[in-house]
């Protein structure tokens, strides 16, 4: 009864027009603020505390977000159509988390010392490609976009959001650190980012088990959505803590 009440309350709250009107701009603004704040505090020596460099890399981050979000529809989910126009709470949660994940990866790719901006682009690009690869595998194996966009299943949106945010944390940590070379970046990415691959495999099986079905057309969002999402995030946070400080992190 409590889970059912919470589900109705959350859906009713998410379908309020003001929330859908402001949630996406607030998320965008928070993402830009996160990029600028992280660069100002933890960027390279030539960037940290320098307004011009922080402004340039933040603008590049905005472009990065715009391009990435234009790729979302290729994976079955669209912010304009599914989240805003159709006021789908599952899509809103999923896509906001995907946006934050891209932000984390971009920020992490800019952390550490390096001789040029190309190093930042390469590192963030490697993480972003890994991000969309994991999303593609999850979509291919679990058809998560159908559950979110067509079934409007809140549990699926929460579950996907937890996984994609966890993937962003793992991949972001894998590309953070001082620059040495392209090959060293790839080696560090595989060494520190490998847990995202088995986590994705687990997410595919979880998606196939918990997505809406004839036997369970309305899965409870707490047990089938929030619990898996928190589990994914717990694994990601544990791995990031295990890796500790990235190379070149300011003390």
Distance between the termini: 50 Å
Percentage beta strand:
under 5%
Number of H- or I-type helical stretches: 11
Radius of gyration: 18 Å
Structural class: mainly alpha
Largest sheet: none
Number of domains: 1
The quaternary state of the protein chains shown equals: single chain
Shape: globular
Mean pLDDT: 89
Unreliable sequence segments:
none
Helix content percent band: over 70%
H/E topology pattern: HHHHHHHHHHH
Structural account:
The longest helix is centred in the N-terminal third of the chain and has 26 residues. With 251 residues, the protein is mainly alpha-helical. The mean pLDDT is 89. It contains 11 helices and no strands. The protein has one domain. Helix 3 crosses helix 5, helix 5 packs antiparallel against helix 6 and helix 6 runs parallel beside helix 9. 77% of the residues lie in helices and 0% in strands. The relative contact order is 0.13.
């Amino acid at each position: 009864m409590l889970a059912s009440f919470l589900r109705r309350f959350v859906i009713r709250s998410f379908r309020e027009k003001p929330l859908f009107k402001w949630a996406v701009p607030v998320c965008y603004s928070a993402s830009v603020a996160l990029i600028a704040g992280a660069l100002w505090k933890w960027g390279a020596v030539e960037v940290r505390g320098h307004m011009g460099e922080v402004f340039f890399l933040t603008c590049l981050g905005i472009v990065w977000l715009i391009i990435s979000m234009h790729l979302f529809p290729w994976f079955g989910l669209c912010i304009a159509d599914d989240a805003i126009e159709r006021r789908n709470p599952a899509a809103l949660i999923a896509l906001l988390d995907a946006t934050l994940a891209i932000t984390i990866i971009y920020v992490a790719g800019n952390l550490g010392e390096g001789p040029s901006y190309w190093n930042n682009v390469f590192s963030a690009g490697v993480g972003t490609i890994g991000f969309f690869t994991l999303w593609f595998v999850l979509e291919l194996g679990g058809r998560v976009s159908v559950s979110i966009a067509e079934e409007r299943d809140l549990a699926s949106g929460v579950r996907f959001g937890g996984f994609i945010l966890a993937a962003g944390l793992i991949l972001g940590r894998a590309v953070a650190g001082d620059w040495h070379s392209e090959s060293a970046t790839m080696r560090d990415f595989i060494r520190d980012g490998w847990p995202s691959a088995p986590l994705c495999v687990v997410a595919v099986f979880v998606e196939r088990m918990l997505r809406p079905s004839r036997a369970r057309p309305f899965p409870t969002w707490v047990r089938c959505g929030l619990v898996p999402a928190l589990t994914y995030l717990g694994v990601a946070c544990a791995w990031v803590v295990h890796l500790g400080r990235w190379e070149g992190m300011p003390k």
